[in-house]
Amino acid sequence: MKPLIYHNPDCGTSRNTLAMIEASGEMPEVIEYLETPPTRERLIELISMIGITPRELLRRKGTPFGELGLDDPALSDEQLLDAMMAHPILINRPIVVTDKGARLCRPSERVLALLASPVATFTKEDGEVVHADGAGHE
Could you tell me the domains of the chain? Predict the structure, then answer.
């Protein structure tokens, strides 16, 4: 299976994640999820694959999270899924799926554990250097 990334090109973390995948020699399938959002069924599947709750996948910054009152702990998973379906910007990104599993790649170097041959060293857009072996940052 080739890697799949739910990507937002306006997001630096998403751009760094995609660049790490490509630097590792992989040509991922890129889904710009704001243009082509996942179906409700796929979103539920992704949440399950990642091993998180719908609330943990919600993006707060730069979204209608606050105005929709999504911080209300009484809201059900179904209500949170409804909000993400109505406003895909609420889906945190990037989500990457490979043969090794699925993750929300925040920070972007979380993708390295999903790749068959991760790049040993990668310099992010902001100049931070990450190492596939987790041996610290420069």
Answer: 4-131 (3.40.30.10)
